[in-house]
Write a structure and sequence with these properties.
This protein is mostly helical. It has helices spanning 13-31, 41-44, 50-66, 94-104. The chain is built from 4 helices and no strands.
């Protein structure tokens, strides 16, 4: 289970579509109070951060449409609660995520990600 903290535009097809599925899974677990994977670190980092997860989905969906994919699975904006501040409780830092993606040997455009200082 993985939601990358990288721009959706640099993700290869596999990771972009995988992230989209994971966002929906996490959303369902949190909104519907499901217990499967409830204690997974990726789910727990989005607790109380549904608006941030909503925005991550929104940006992912925009990239999907830009690439010509049909996107028909919106998340409801009404009733979204929690902080809109980007999540800072990384499972892996952005730098570590770049290393992980590079090691996968996929078509992700890791070199296009600007280095940013993390708090």
């Amino acid at each position: 289970m993985r939601v990358w903290d990288l721009p959706p535009s640099i993700l290869c097809r596999q990771h972009l579509l995988g992230q989209h599925r994971e966002i929906h899974a996490i959303w369902s677990i949190l909104v519907n109070d499901r217990w499967g994977y409830r204690n997974h670190p990726e789910v727990r980092r989005w607790e109380g951060r549904l608006s941030s997860l909503w925005w991550r989905h929104f940006r992912t969906a925009i990239e999907m449409r830009r690439r010509g994919y049909k996107h028909n699975s919106t998340l409801p904006a009404a009733g979204v609660f929690g902080s809109g501040v980007p999540q800072r409780a990384f499972i892996n830092t952005v730098a570590e995520q770049k290393v992980l993606l590079k090691a996968k040997g996929c078509d992700c455009k890791i070199n296009l990600v600007e280095e940013r200082k993390e708090p």
